[in-house]
Structures are given as C-alpha cells and as structure tokens.
Amino acid sequence: MKTLMALWYGLFRNNPIFRLVLGLCPTLAVTTSLENAIGMGLASTFVLVCSNILVSALRKVIPAAVHIPCYIVIIATFVTATDLLMQAFLPALSESLGIFIPLIVVNCIILGRAEAFASRNGIIDSLADGIGSGVGFTMSLSLVAAVREIVGAGTLTVWGDLAFKNLNPGPITMAILPAGGFITLGILLALINRIGEWNARRHGAPPPLPISLDCRHCTMCPSGK
C-alpha cells in the first residue's frame, strides 16, 4: 500500500511542477518543443530512480554528518552517465538540451526526494517514489511544451522525424519565447488549481488550500519537519 501511495503522490498529489512548484528552471527553458520536454523528463527520471535506489540501499551506511555531500556525489555520478550516453546515442537531443542535462545535479526535485524519502524508506518504496516523481515531472514538462509548441509554432515534435504540422493557422511566436514560458505555466497552474477546487466541491469537501512554501509545511517530507 505504501508503495502505491508513493507512486500516486509523485504523479499527482505532490506533482513536482503543478503542486510543489519545483524544477521551474528546466520547465521554462526546455519546453519550447515536446521532444525536448520528453528528453529532459526521461533523463531526470533515470537519475531520480537510480539515485533513490542507491541512497536507500546506503542509507544506514552514510554518516549523518555528510549525507548531503554523499547524495550530491551519487546524483552527479548518474547525471554524468546520462550526459555521456546522450552525447553518444542522442547527439542532436543532447545539443538541444545543452547545459540543462548537467544541471540535473542541482535539480531540487532529485535532491529533495533523496533527502526526504529515499534516505528514510526501503528500496522498493524508493523505487516507486522515484518513478512517480519522475513520470509526474515528465508529464508536466510535456503538457507545458505541447501547449507552447502548438500555440507558438503550430507544430508538435514528438520525437525525431515524428512531428505534426499546421496545427495552428496563426502561431503566436511569443509562446516559445521566455516570456511565453512564464505565461503558459501560470495559466496551466491556474487551470489545475481551479479543477482541484471544482473536484473538491463536487465531493462535498472544502477547496484545497495552496501548498505553503514554508519548510515547516513542506509536503515532500512525510513528517512535516
């Protein structure tokens, strides 16, 4: 049951972008096309899953005084492997994503899950948490990218040569510019919050309160501390 909850929380309830509002740097930078978003999401998911598993396996061995540096070394190792593999097998995508692949090392989502969940739970639960958070991150990136690409370019580049064209007869170029990223994300956040309020009222529950950005109420930490 706990494993399924970890998966569910990462996908929906604690979605990194639309609920926790984390990882906004790559969200705004790489979502100019769906292909870039999928590539970044899958790379982040791989690093997240692998680092969660290793941190969980070593949680009783890593000294408490140096646990954060150890987590960063573990994450950096998998990021380096991901970066080299992408350069070898997906050079075009690697060039398109550029510096944002190495910057996965400092992605607060990955370090946050290692610190808040993997360091306190078993390997299976940590695996589920990594998959849930990674897939949730990928889905959110893909949604933002799909909206921006369709509105801004009238295309939808799924992967490589697989692309749909002429989806928008009057593309608005600003949607794929930096300002368009902020506007698109803001509109999607507002819509998702509105849907959450509507769904709560439909079930006779009070509207969900906004997640506090105060560390004392951080939903990434089950203990609330």
Describe this structure in words.
The structure is a single chain. The protein has helices at residues 2-13, 24-29, 34-57, 67-89, 91-97, 108-116, 123-153, 178-202, and strands at 156-159, 162-164. The chain has eight helices and two strands, in the order αααααααββα. Helix content is 61%, strand content 3%. Strands 1-2 form a two-stranded antiparallel ribbon. It has one domain. The protein is mainly α and 225 residues long. Helix 1 (2-13) packs parallel to helix 7 (123-153) and helix 4 (67-89) packs across helix 5. The chain starts with a helix and ends in a 23-residue tail after the last helix. The radius of gyration is 18 Å and the shape is globular.
Search tags:
two-stranded antiparallel ribbon; 2 strands; 225 residues; globular; mainly alpha
Provide a short characterization of the protein structure.
The protein is mainly alpha-helical. The protein has helices at residues 2-13, 24-29, 34-57, 67-89, 91-97, 108-116, 123-153, 178-202; strands at 156-159, 162-164.
